[in-house]
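Marked as duplicate of an earlier ticket. Keeping the data here for the record.
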Amino acid sequence: MPDMITLQDIQEAASRLQGQVLETPCVESRTLSQIVGAQVFLKFENLQFTASFKERGACNKLAQLTPEERARGVVAMSAGNHAQGVAYHAQRLGLRAVIVMPRFTPGVKVERTRGFGAEVVLHGDTLEEARAHAYQLADAQGLTFVHPYDDEAIAAGQGTLALEMLRAQPDLDSLVISVGGGGLIAGVATAAKALKPGIEVVGVQTLRFPSMVNAVQGTQHPMGSSTIAEGIAVGTPGRITQEVVARLVDELLLVDEGDIEQALLMLLEIEKTLVEGAGAAGLAALIRHPERFHGKKVGLVLSGGNIDPLLLAAIIERGMVRSGRLARIRVSARDVPGALARITATLADAGANIEEVHHQRAFTMLAAQNVEIELVLQTRGHAHVQELLGHLHGAGMSASRM
């Protein structure tokens, strides 16, 4: 039986972290509350220096090392936020930090981790190979291995944010927490249930990585290979954390990729705050299961804000398409001089901005004297797109949405 994490461990962690990590705001979002029908409070962990809550656990773990362990240094395996949290706090405490990352890790993450003074070792094609190598280095060089989640000191450090949430908003009914390996929810559930036994703690996983759901509920949901919430894409949950989840967490919910994309965009547009996929999973659960939280006071943790800019650009563009603000239409017209000018003038009069034009002569089933023109338009939404098609039809052209 692993050692239990206790409220006292988390309170002691909080005093160690005083002045070492940011006490991030926990405030209501009135607009999100109206949209989902619950009173939504956001904990902005994406404002930490390395843009994620992972610093809390790392700092708590490193602060408790013995003088001998400090002299030798630490090693961690992570391609993400844990790496930066360990590297940054090791640098602050003057410790040597070795971070093992899989070879496929994006260059920007490698550089950022090096920027915090860590020695980065790229090894293996999978997280498992990288982890095995990190354990070998720990043995060979006497380094202390800092696990991303399956460690009491790490989970206790993460749990400190629940103390802050309940201090800022004592009457929360539910905490909705994203779950990967389980370090965050284990710490949060331990703290919250000890301080307020009636509070509900709900975990969220993606349909593509339901490892904790399978482990705790004995289900056999298939595991996927990739998700935009890579921060919670964990194949095997922690042993210590799984025990806490089974004991203290009220429910585990699953969300899909579309829910996460939508939540991420809502946070960006409404709250003007940038979160990564895993950081949007809690809001995604409220979007997917609104009746489950209706009328409750719900605390969400925006767990991190490290997202690849190209992925963000793709999500924004896809969101524009879903909301009808970016639309593709096909117009067929007589292939005569001025036909394109008439089409563009009609669209301009109706208030659309043309982003792309594709003139199609050969690849079409139309009669030879006709031409097919595909356009990508910036519009005000679905209703506006219908209006534009009406204008084109009114001008004698055949037009349809693609």
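See parent ticket for discussion. The CA atoms of residues 8 and 191 lie 9 Å apart.
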